[in-house]
């Protein structure tokens, strides 16, 4: 699956509109972060390496992140109306998978050099990249650009994969509500994307 150039441009506009809603210091720091290769790769990276997951195509990470924000806003309105400002929900939704871009200069996912498995696994994890979990990578990149997170945001991004990530086991039944909401929004988005992609194959 791919997305059109028009859709890519529309997605960039949607992300920047959400960024414009951030408080001033965060907004300016995110925009500075987006000025370099980190920002460019956020808009062009896939959300995963394999089609059995979801959004394994250029621009998939951005599309998935937008979908997560939409879900998070709906969940919040239904379950905890007024609990969090929309800009806070937009922030954790946009950057929960930010580690999937890689690091400051290297992509996390690179084209699969094996032609035998290209249809199933269009990407592989970059073997030259230092290991970090996706969530730790997201938090590392954000702090590298002085984009500060509060404790609730930190825990939401850290735990966005919920108990699917064994590293999160110690947080079981101790997650803050925002972490649970983000996990549900993320899981639902990924499942919906996978379903849509399977219909187009």
Q: How many discrete domains?
A: 1
- Share in helix: 40-55%
Strand line-up across the major sheet = 1-2
Secondary-structure element string: HHHHHEEHHH
Give the distance, in angstroms, between the N- and C-terminal Cα atoms. Answer: 8 Å
Structural features, described:
- With 201 residues, the protein is mostly helical.
- It has one domain (5-199).
- The chain is 53% helix and 3% strand.
- The protein has eight helices and two strands.
- Strands 1-2 form a two-stranded antiparallel ribbon.
- Helix 4 packs across helix 8 (177-199) and helix 7 (151-158) runs parallel beside helix 8.
- It is globular.
- The mean pLDDT is 89.
Jot down its keywords.
201 residues, mainly alpha, 8 helices, 2 strands, 53% helix, globular
Write the layout of secondary structure elements.
Layout: H1 5-20, H2 24-34, H3 37-44, H4 60-79, H5 86-95, E1 109-111, E2 123-125, H6 134-144, H7 151-158, H8 177-199
Antiparallel strand pairs: 1-2
Helix pairs in contact: 4-5, 4-8, 7-8
Short description:
This protein is mainly alpha-helical and 201 residues long. Helices cover 53% and strands 3% of the residues.
């Amino acid at each position: 699956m791919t997305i059109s150039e028009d859709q890519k441009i529309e997605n960039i506009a949607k992300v920047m509109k959400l960024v414009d809603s951030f408080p001033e210091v965060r907004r300016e720091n995110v925009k500075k972060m987006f000025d370099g290769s980190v920002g460019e790769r956020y808009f062009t990276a896939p959300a995963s390496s394999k089609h059995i997951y979801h959004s394994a195509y250029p621009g998939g990470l951005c599309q998935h992140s937008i979908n997560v924000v939409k879900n998070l806003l709906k969940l919040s309105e239904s379950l905890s109306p007024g609990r969090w400002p929309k800009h806070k929900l937009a922030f954790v939704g946009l950057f929960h998978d930010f580690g999937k871009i890689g690091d400051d200069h290297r992509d996390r996912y690179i084209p699969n050099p094996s032609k035998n498995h290209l249809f199933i696994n269009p990407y592989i994890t970059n073997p030259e990249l230092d290991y970090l979990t996706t969530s730790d990578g997201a938090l590392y990149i954000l702090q590298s650009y002085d984009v500060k997170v509060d404790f609730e945001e930190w825990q939401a991004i850290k735990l966005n994969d919920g108990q699917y990530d064994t590293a999160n086991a110690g947080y079981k039944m101790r997650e803050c509500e925002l972490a649970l909401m983000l996990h549900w929004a993320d899981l639902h988005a990924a499942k919906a994307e996978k379903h849509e992609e399977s219909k187009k194959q």
